[in-house]
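ok trying again, last paste got cut off:
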Amino acid sequence: MIDSIDSTTWTSGVRGRKTDVWKGQSLLFGDKGKTNQSFIQLACLKNLTHLNKMGLDPKELLAGDNTALTLAPLALYYMPMLTDMGHYKDNFK
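nice, full thing came through this time. structure:
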């Protein structure tokens, strides 16, 4: 199981309208990310399974919805990272 004591990445989506993408680039959302939409769509397509598990609609991320931005780091960074590390089932059900 992975433990995290640094909340910077966990809260980056809603606080800074920015989140990292596992094995990808950082994304900006909302007004800040209007020129970033093709990268957001690509990241959403690549991680569609994780977005669906979180109940996230990619359109909500493109619009910069606060609830979607709160969950974005989980679906775009942590879930794919833990899958690659073989620890997904230990952390998510």
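cool. Residues 66-85 form the longest helix (20 residues). The chain is about 60% helix and 5% strand.
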